[in-house]
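Weekly modeling sync, notes
Attendees: S.R. (lead), two postdocs, one rotation student

Agenda item 3: backlog of single-chain predictions. S.R. asked that every request posted to the team notebook include the full sequence so nobody has to chase files. The rotation student volunteered to paste the first one in as an example of the format we agreed on. Action items at the bottom.

Example entry:
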Amino acid sequence: MAMGGVLKSLEDLWVQGQLRDLEHDLDRFIRDNLIEIRRVMSEGRGAGTEIARRRFMRGEINDRQLVDYCVRAVLRKRGTCNPRRDIQEQCYEIEKEVWYEGERVKCPVGAERREEIARSWASQHASKWREWRLFQLLYVWEKKAELYLPILTEKSERKS
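Predicted structure, as returned to the notebook:
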């Protein structure tokens, strides 16, 4: 699928409200990982963030661009916001394959065949599935980034 097709698919999912679970996951992820994300922004360690940090210090990119780059870097490094949901959804995809097989052979699928189907799905589809999930997360981040800028750029050392 060309990048235009990917973007169109993501826009369709967004409009249909099918990325709401990921919105919630991203919200929890950002709030739970505020300290780490702020550290990446301030120290610029890992995943190419040191370059973004230097560019920020030289005034070549603004706060928003630094936040955007660092959040994307953290998301890419983690690969997910909610591993449990990802596993559940991949299991659901495997169950669909098992169901299709049962329909095809017109009888229940035995345990050994279920195992084969699961292994086959994992080897053929799991990495593409995870890549697609990351595209979805990055898209949701792009849609919601403005909402998180204030909490991500807020100085962590508050004096009372």
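Discussion: group reviewed the output briefly. Helices lie at 3-15, 20-32, 34-43, 49-57, 63-78, 83-105, 111-153.
Action items: rotation student to repeat for the remaining queue; S.R. to check formatting next week.
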